[in-house]
Specification:
Radius of gyration: 16 Å
Structural class: mainly beta
Oligomer: single chain
Largest sheet: 8 strands, antiparallel, barrel
Number of helices: 0
Strand order of the largest sheet: 1-3-4-5-6-7-8-10
Number of strands: 10
Order of helices and strands: EEEEEEEEEE
Shape: globular
Strand content: 35-45%
Length: 140
């Protein structure tokens, strides 16, 4: 009694920005891996056929607040003025970029696609719409 329960996932280095007492995700350990599940992305119709950008990616913690597996990245970044924002990107998937930005707070887990662009094509941005949800736990 009185002991902290063991998490149902492997803990990584603590990301103090979002994990801990009084933080968005609560007094829990930062996971060593997370799942980024991309869904609803529509490829730009002007582009040649290519791989489907939708689907899950398992990301590994590189630094306390930064996860990647190569094509996909989830991180917390500091913007001008000292404001932090969570971002997730499916970068250069088959030569295209799909960028998502945090919606509700600096410690978001649900992201909306291409909020900075919104139309096809824009440089290397290869699609519109969709979302990405970050999760962790025994299912990954």
């Amino acid at each position: 009694m009185g002991e902290t329960p063991t998490p149902d996932y492997e803990a990584g280095d603590q990301c103090e920005r979002c994990f801990g007492i009084g933080k968005t995700f609560g007094d829990v350990n930062t996971p060593s891996t997370v799942k980024a599940n991309f869904s609803g992305i529509m490829r730009c119709p002007e582009l040649p056929p290519g791989p489907d950008p939708n689907g899950p990616h398992i990301l590994t913690q590189i630094t306390p607040c930064y996860y990647t597996n190569g094509p996909a990245t989830f991180y917390f970044s500091k913007l001008d003025g000292g404001i932090y924002e969570a971002r997730v990107a499916l970068g250069y998937w088959a030569g295209l970029m799909f960028v998502f930005a945090g919606q509700a707070s600096e410690c978001s887990l649900i992201f909306t696609n291409n909020i900075d662009y919104g139309y096809c094509p824009y440089g290397y941005v290869g699609g519109t719409g969709g979302q990405c949800e970050i999760s962790w736990g025994p299912e990954i």
